[in-house]
Every structure is written in C-alpha cells, then in structure tokens.
C-alpha cells in the first residue's frame, strides 16, 4: 500500500494532465484515479499540430482581451512570439532610407529580430532583479505575445502606406501605433504586474513601456513601401 500511494504522490492535486512549461496534454479519457499517459507518441501529427495551434491562438485571444491573468504564465511557449517577431521583422526590413540604394534590407531584418529578443531578455532580467516571482521564459513568453497589438498596428499602417501619403495619414498612422503601444503595455502589465513585489511595480513597468515604445516608434517611422 505504501508503494502504491507514493507512486501517485508524485503528481499533486490539480497538476495531472498538465506539464509545466508545455502545451496541454490530453488525458486520453482515462477515468479519474487511474494511470494517465503523459506522452503524445501515439497521437496523430495533425491532432498534435491543431492542439498546439489552438493553444497559441488562445494566448493571442487573452492578449486582445486581457482579463484572465494566468493563461500566459501557466503554460508558456515561444511559438507565438517567434511568429510575431518574424512577421514584424519581415515587414520592417528595408524601411530605412540609405544612401546606398543597393542595400537589400537584410540588416534591418536582423536588427528588428535582435531588438525584440534582446529587449525582452533585458526587461525580463530587470524584473527578476527586482524580485519577480515568475520564471525567465514565462516573462519572455508574455512580452512576446503582447507584441500582438503592435503587430496589428504595423499591418494596418503598412496598408495605409500603399496610398498617397499626406499629413492626415501620418497622423492616422501615429494614432494607430500609439493605440497598439498602449494596448500592448496594458496587456503586459496586466499579466506581469502581480509578479512584482509591492513598491517595485513602477520600476518593472517602466522598462516594459520603453520596450514597446521603441517598437511602436519603428512602426510609425516605417515609410518605405
């Protein structure tokens, strides 16, 4: 009886069916109290792909409507941030006018890509140094997913750039970019705010605002169609 009990004490109540830091793993329909399979080796590839895709989409939804605070923290992943970072870097590449017209825009892609990941790492390191109680990758996951409003603003501004530009359209792009900035900052602080000790939240929020402001400024300054 002792051996049987210790076997099941390895999984505290509430943790069964969830692997920390990974996507949800289905319980295979096993009745409560029975042994459960914790691998997906016998699961069809399509089912695994669609389940992970739904998990990423669900995180994007929680960024758009940031009401529930644990969705991005309980099961972090970097697929969404990688997708957003690649999308933004691809759109922004070649946006800066250079004296050398032979420039193919390659360096800009690398610059945006590095800016996003290094910036997220620095903001996360600042949060940890201030005594934040979440893991490094959980924070990077939240910061990456909260790029979604800025990425949407970039897409809209890119469409506006296909028309003849004037002062009104520049002001419109500025407003759209600022809305994306405010939205991203609000979502990130909504998820990460409670992870900081009292009295230090402002010190943790300031780098987040600066990080998203720089990316939003890239969106506004993007003018090469």
Automatic annotation (TrEMBL):
Query: What are the entry keywords?
Result: Membrane, Transmembrane, Transmembrane helix
Any one Pfam family match given in the protein's UniProt record, by short name = Yip1
Primary place of residence?
Answer: Golgi
Regions crossing the membrane: 112-130, 142-162, 168-191, 203-220
Keyword Lipid metabolism present in the record's keywords: the answer is: no
InterPro entries listed in its UniProt record: Yip1/4-like, Yip1_dom
Q: Does the keyword Transmembrane apply?
A: yes
Quote the subcellular location field of this record: Golgi apparatus membrane; Membrane
Yip1 domain: which residues?
65-218
Q: How does it sit in the membrane?
A: Multi-pass membrane protein
* Family membership: Belongs to the YIP1 family.
Q: What is this protein called?
A: Protein YIPF
